[in-house]
Amino acid sequence: MKTRSHPAVRNHDETRRQLLEAGGAVFAEMGFRDATVREICRVAKANIAAVNYHFGDKDSLYLEVLRYAHGKALEKYPPLQGLPESAPPEKKLRAFIHSFLLRIFDKGPTSWHGKLISREMIEPTGALDSLVEERIRPMSNQLWKIVAGILDCPLNDRRVWMCSFSVVSQCVFFHHCRPVVARLFPKQLPHDPASIERLAEHITTFSLAAMKSRPARSATKR
Amino acid sequence: MKTRSHPAVRNHDETRRQLLEAGGAVFAEMGFRDATVREICRVAKANIAAVNYHFGDKDSLYLEVLRYAHGKALEKYPPLQGLPESAPPEKKLRAFIHSFLLRIFDKGPTSWHGKLISREMIEPTGALDSLVEERIRPMSNQLWKIVAGILDCPLNDRRVWMCSFSVVSQCVFFHHCRPVVARLFPKQLPHDPASIERLAEHITTFSLAAMKSRPARSATKR
DNA sequence: TGACCTGTCAAACAAATGTTTTAATTATTT
DNA sequence: AAATAATTAAAACATTTGTTTGACAGGTCA
User: Fold this and answer.
1) pLDDT value at A34 more than 70
2) A199 CB-contact burial (10 Å; exposed 0-12 / middle 13-18 / buried 19+)
3) CA-to-C1' distance for A12 and D11, Å?
4) Which chain A residues in 31-70 lie under 8 Å from chain B, judged by CB atoms?
5) What is the pTM of this model?
């Protein structure tokens, strides 16, 4: 089996990649503490010592998994996907909300990306800092512009911040409260594209109605 | 035997209470898995065997801590803030939202109530099942009635579920996203009663405006 | 008082788990 | 082809941690 490039290196990278995939799945499902390297290696079909050999220790593997997941999610859902600059802000808002939900409810190999970030919220590691600056702040700015366009007021108006938060909070709700919602109303959890779109439609109309009512300007600016 | 308020029994209850308090603090700070029985007993100034003696095992202690915390928080901030049953639903909604936020942002000995529940969302333990049924579902039903009153439609209308979720999602947002919000907009995090009340006012008016606009009835009922 | 219950304590136990070690296998180079 | 480096594999190691055990102290009640 003479491979033209570097078989040893190829195996090295392949095992590494499988450990990243398995780590993502197991960390997302079990949490950092409950995820065992034995389980990760079992899923990755690798030896128990593989994690330490390739990543040093469990913590380093976790950091690498976060970067890996972040990269894959960005690749699948680029931040500016399907948002034409010339579109009216109402349409942009609908697209923003819908794509947000699609990311959250995404099935498949990138589905653990959201769960990993959720865990970072509760127990922030150093990775959250760069994650906020690189991924979350750009999206936040994007939403601010849309909301300011709908409210027809300057970006630094307090209502922009307030209403943006109201929109985002509805989007991330199922992100964080899925276990509770699943127990309270099992049938209400969106599961297919149609129900996700219905949910996006509700959040959009709910938020648009609230913003169109032009709430009184708060006393203090930000 | 006939245990009234004799020293032995008093010690029993006292140790038990201290274990609950210590458990709340340690579980909230470290999470269920990372919190060790040894640490809890150290904080409670009790012996290592105390947890097993008084609660059976670590899981049972955790469940009791959750009940204890939620009970204390509800006792301190009742959902309707003493509003009479006859009050208009708009006033009830405002009280519901405000007390919800007060519970979340509460400082002091009951402050870990919020963190505990946040962790349950991300990393559900067996305790979540009973917590949902005993504590959360009643509050959910309460909100449903309020929302149904505002929408002026039957309880099983799909819009009741949808709008209730929109309200709750705004309330729990800072619960879960605090680390991100703290990095994105450090100055926007509510910190005193005045800013909490302003936030409650925004959520209330935002949601009322959305609901008063009477969104079109969805095709399917629940 | 003396049997008896209850709660506390220190020590030990047993299981899980991250990590290391050492040998075997595979690939690359000379 | 032989030597060397790289990767994998199996077992052992060391630590943590929930739990149990058995002794002991304090109080109760016959």
Assistant:
1) yes
2) buried
3) 23
4) 31, 33-34
5) 0.81
